[in-house]
Specification:
Layout: E1 3-8, H1 19-29, E2 31-37, H2 44-53, E3 57-60, H3 75-85, E4 90-96, H4 107-120, E5 125-130, H5 133-141, E6 150-152, H6 162-168, E7 170-175, H7 184-189, E8 198-201, H8 232-243, H9 247-262
Parallel strand pairs: 1-2, 2-3, 4-5, 5-6, 6-7, 7-8
Length: 265
């Protein structure tokens, strides 16, 4: 069986140079490919370096709404340069009205500029959305989107919006975080996702996987827990059990979906 991580941040500094060790654990566990999402101009070079070193890593370049205040006047040209080198994927981009003290000003403009770049190059885009689902739907409906589709990473939006997003070309990515007992509503939402639009992700090092379910405990230098990217396999098992299907059949369709949107590997 092969496992595909639709969204992580392997370049994150909190992994403190242990990337090779993490990649080796992932490979051993059966991870075939992972989309490594950049978040700002500062980490795009690290994402590119990882992709050059590890064939597991599919690089994705984008400005995350949490980092927009760091953008340089040349950020869009800079983004295009990375995509010229590796025409792979755009992300993580999006809208966030949830994070306390985060300014919303400029978020839509930056999101649309990056969506436009993804669309004109027909590259998959990975979208972050917190407490802005209605507006996200509107913007997607009214602007060009990548013909191959886009990913709603860690989809926590309302189930009622799934059909409309599906029509626009969305894939819905399930994070291990939703396997916490208390996240039942988010798990149930995934029962409404069309079988050919489901993806699975770790979002490592974020969105902690339930400690009792992990075989890969990990912490940063201060001892705070981190999500290990090899938790992916346990996320597949947990979701398969919840959806009442075998891991084999889930893995087979997620593989097809991953390859359809992110390209053959
Ligand atoms: Zn992310």
């Amino acid at each position: 069986m092969k496992f595909y991580d639709a969204h992580n941040h392997l370049q994150d500094d909190r992994f403190a140079g242990r990337q090779n060790e993490l990649l080796a654990a992932c490979e051993k566990a059966g991870v075939a490919r992972m989309v490594v999402n950049g978040a700002c101009e500062n980490d795009w070079p690290q994402v590119l370096a990882l992709a050059r070193e590890a064939k597991l890593a599919l690089p994705s370049f984008g400005y995350h709404p949490w980092h927009l205040h760091e953008r340089t006047p040349d950020w869009q040209r800079n983004l295009e340069k990375f995509l010229d080198v590796v025409p792979s994927a755009v992300g993580e981009i999006g809208l966030d009205r949830w994070k306390p003290d985060l300014s919303y000003t400029g978020q839509e403009e930056a999101f649309l500029a990056q969506l436009h770049i993804a669309s004109k190059r027909n590259l998959p885009a990975s979208l972050h959305c917190l407490q802005a689902w209605g507006r996200m739907g509107e913007l997607l409906r009214n602007h060009p989107r990548p013909a191959r589709g886009f990913v709603l990473h860690s989809f926590g939006g309302p189930a009622e919006m799934i059909p409309a997003f599906t029509k626009l070309g969305a894939y819905f990515s399930f994070p291990g975080y939703f396997l916490h007992e208390r996240k039942l509503r988010q798990r149930e939402t995934f029962q409404q996702v069309p079988p050919d639009r489901l993806l699975i992700e770790t979002d490592a090092p974020d969105q902690l996987f339930p400690a009792e379910k992990t075989d890969f405990p990990l912490a940063d230098a201060e001892g705070s827990p981190l999500n290990h990217p090899a938790n992916l396999v346990a996320i597949y098992s947990g979701l398969a059990e919840f959806l009442g299907e075998t891991v084999e059949s889930l893995a087979a369709r997620v593989e097809e979906n991953f390859q359809r949107v992110f390209g053959e590997i």
